[in-house]
Amino acid sequence: MALLATWRNRLTAGPRRALRFAMFDFKDIEIIRSVVRYGGFRAASDATGLAQSAISRRIRHLEDRMGITIFERDGRGVRLSATGRRLCDEGEVLVAQRDRIVEELTQGMMAGVVRLGVAETMTHTILPRMLTTLGHRHPMLRFEISVDTSDQMEQALKDDALDVAILLRDQAPRGIVLAPLPPVSMGWFVSPEHFTLPSPAGIEDLVSLPIVSFPKSTIPHRQVLERLSSGRRRPATVHGSASLATMLHLVQQGFGIGTIPHSIVAAWPHAMLREIEVLPEAVLPPLEFGICYDPERNEEIGRAVTLAAIEAATD
């Protein structure tokens, strides 16, 4: 057992010991770069103020530690070996990353990945302008965008699965920052080649046809049902879809009439949909969206996204 333990220690200690002795640091990379940049040890010494012997000694010790040849020496001077060239190239990447990190930390630059949740209505309206603005102001930010329903994003914010979300205000969880966006107006739309309705149309006219709306679990779906079903002789047939593109296609192809934001129909003119003029009893309330984030976890990025979103919404 003692012999087995001895060999196990040797086998596991060997790689750790080799790795420790083979390590190099940023100073090593900078010295190698100076030799390459200035064309030799003497020129590097003159440019950096380091003694030529110190430069030569450091590189020789690095070669010994790593068991490689960094510079090939001949009568005309030195040049990088193939291994040395790779070390220099990889080292350039490390130095650039170090400089970037230092700059971000010392100059207050925002960087990293932002998990952004967005209701689909916003993807066709403010999202492109908002992200373009953020990209110009904070070029080191990267976005992971999730398009989902407001109730799903509400839970994701609670679970810290999203950093910022643009969702319906009524779905915003408690304890977060909520910045309202301008309301999004809604309308009834139809493909004229498939259906003809009186103008203005009443609720009985609307419920005589299949209706395509938001998903069943959402506030806009419930609002449509409240308008159409209360005290009516005929129950409404309301189909739900989480995809606005699907809603547009279904209405365009004559599957039914749709409750769709005006801004979405305006963004899809090729759908050739016409708004149905309706009586006051059938007018749909606007969608009230807001930007949400947890101030304890995401104050800085939350403020930045909120500002860009409000600017995009008011252009």
UniProtKB/TrEMBL annotation:
A GO molecular-function descriptor: DNA binding
The record places domain HTH lysR-type at: 24-81
Which species does the entry assign this protein to?
Pseudodonghicola xiamenensis
Protein family according to the UniProt entry: Belongs to the LysR transcriptional regulatory family.
Q: Which UniProt keywords apply?
A: DNA-binding, Transcription, Transcription regulation
Q: Is Metal-binding there in the keyword field?
A: no
Keyword Nucleotide-binding present in the record's keywords: the answer is: no
Q: Which domain of life is it from?
A: Bacteria
Which SUPFAM superfamilies does the record match to this protein? Periplasmic binding protein-like II (SSF53850), Winged helix' DNA-binding domain (SSF46785)
Q: Which Gene3D superfamilies match?
A: Periplasmic binding protein-like II, Winged helix-like DNA-binding domain superfamily/Winged helix DNA-binding domain
Q: Transmembrane stretches, by residue range?
A: none
User: Protein name, please?
Assistant: Transcriptional regulator
